Amino acid sequence: MTWQQIEAGEQLIQAEKGTVYKDWGGRLPIALIFPNSYYLGMSSLALHTLYRLWNASDDIVCERVFVDPSAGDPAPPLSLESGAPVDYFPVLAFSLTYEMDYFNLVGLLRAAGLPLRARERDESHPLIIAGGPAVSANPEPLAPFLDAVLIGEIEPAFAALTAALRCIYDGREAALEALSQVAGVYLPNPDETPAPGRPVVRQWLADLDRCPTHSTILTPNTEFSNMGLIEIARGCGRGCRFCLAGYAYRPPRERSVACIIEQARVLLADTDRIGLVSAAVSDHSGIDVLARQLRQLGADISVSSMRVDPPSTPLIRALAESGTRTLTIAPEAGSERLRQAINKTQTADDVLRAVDLAAHYGLAQVKLYFMIGLPTETEEDIQALVDLTLACAQRFTGRVTANVTPFVPKAGTPFQRVAQTRAKTLKKRLDYVDSKLRRQAITVKSESPAWAEIQGGLARGDRRVAEALLTVERVTPGNWKKALNEAGLSLQDLLRERAAGEPLPWDFIRSGIQEAHLRREAQRAAVPRTTGPCQPADCVACGVCQ
């Protein structure tokens, strides 16, 4: 323990509202670990939900642990609430949203002095479990390090999972045996390569109103500073073929306006800012009513994302009245043809109408999110991206920002078998976009194509990737390639196209989505041809609701 850690932790804690402190006596301590910074982790509603649910049990004390990725030589990790070292906890529970955090997970275990491979840990070591969208889609790159993985959403499995964790007092084997009986829990077997034959069924919550999801702790030290976040819906029925969230959280479900307003009333006792969170906030069937009611309660409103086909005038007006200065739109692709290929049905006219509304209500900035390297993308599509951005800038007097992200194919989506566009091609296209837009005073932000290749390998890799995670020290694209080579892998092999019928590392996961549906959607992308939105009430197209 260092004085810098203690001082930094105390400063963060002192600025919080809602922190839970419990004596450890007679309670099961669980370290809830977000393997990235406090700033990012405290924006995660999954973290807030687990913290609230576990601390609601009198016999459990749940404390948070974060990682500073910028630390060159990380000190042993400590919990935020009590400053306890990670290895003091019988259970370490990792919440994994991003594949790039896999490096931080390995680094944290190493800094804590814990054996990295699960097979090397004994009764003196914590039980290590993980969950979240990244490992729910494909847990295999981390499988050798984890004792258990929850596939899917926590709420349906929470009671049984927690009961199984209590068995840790009877020893690791007793806890693992109990976990093996929990629906949705995957126990990686170190003797099975690359993955088990027994299928694991993804868990999902049918009725969101049963389990409210909102901020438990308010803090200024996060992107949503002192904002009360509320999840208003889960999943997305639009069926964008690139989107992990759209497939990992099927079927789309909504919280009722009444439930959301009830949560907002509680949060408004401590803040006047409410953030609405979902894959597409404006798709909520009651969004116009919800926006008006929240404004009547005196709430300033922010949204995580919104569709613009069509744009919601009441929502944009409510955002402007709340002091929001930026409208964020995600066309994803510049051309109509490429948007049809990825099943993003909003048109250029939809985007421009939303920009006109932003100008009408006096917003200061429009952010446009695009991807490059999408399947079937051509140079004409890149030019269309430039043209659409310029058209937005021509009718908006404020600042226009284009965020351009390399596309990474994800497991469990229609594009799970496509080849990832290589960094050299992506860089050339990014440079073209940057040169055309910056001369028109448009801000361009982009992610590194080389780092996107690392993410792509982690997203669709198998257990052999774990060996590279073990050996890489300072993570750079060059060092990662070297570590892969030493593990008998190549970046080219990880990023290549997977042939139809070729076994995939994540085949044992039963998401409910039929392989035939994913294959059909990939074929429609090549045409291109769009697919209508999901209608959970009477739809059997993908198989989840059957």
What does this structure look like?
The strands form five sheets. The protein has a six-stranded mixed beta sheet. The protein has a four-stranded parallel beta sheet with strand order 13-14-15-16, with helices on one face. A three-stranded parallel beta sheet has the order 8-11-12. The protein contains 20 helices and 17 strands. The model has no long low-confidence stretch (mean pLDDT 94). The radius of gyration is 23 Å and the shape is globular. The longest helix is centred in the C-terminal third of the chain and has 16 residues, at 379-394. By secondary structure, it is α/β, with parallel strands linked by helices. The protein folds into three domains: 25-200, Rossmann fold, CATH 3.40.50; 204-323, Transcription Regulator spoIIAA (2-Layer Sandwich), CATH 3.30.750.210; 325-460 and 512-546, Transcription Regulator spoIIAA, CATH 3.30.750.
In the predicted model, the low-confidence regions spanning at least 5 consecutive residues are none
CATH class descriptor of the largest domain:
Alpha Beta
For the report, how would you describe the main beta sheet? 6 strands, mixed
Give the radius of gyration: 23 Å
Distance between the termini: 53 Å
Write the CATH architecture name of the largest domain: 3-Layer(aba) Sandwich
Number of H- or I-type helical stretches: 20
User: Strand arrangement, largest sheet?
Assistant: 2-1-3-4-5-6
Q: Indicate how many domains the architecture comprises.
A: 3
Mean pLDDT: 94
Proportion of helical residues: 25-40%
What name is given to the CATH topology of the largest domain? Rossmann fold
Number of separate strands: 17
Structural class by secondary-structure content: alpha/beta
In terms of DSSP E residues, the strand content is 5-15%
* Shape type: globular
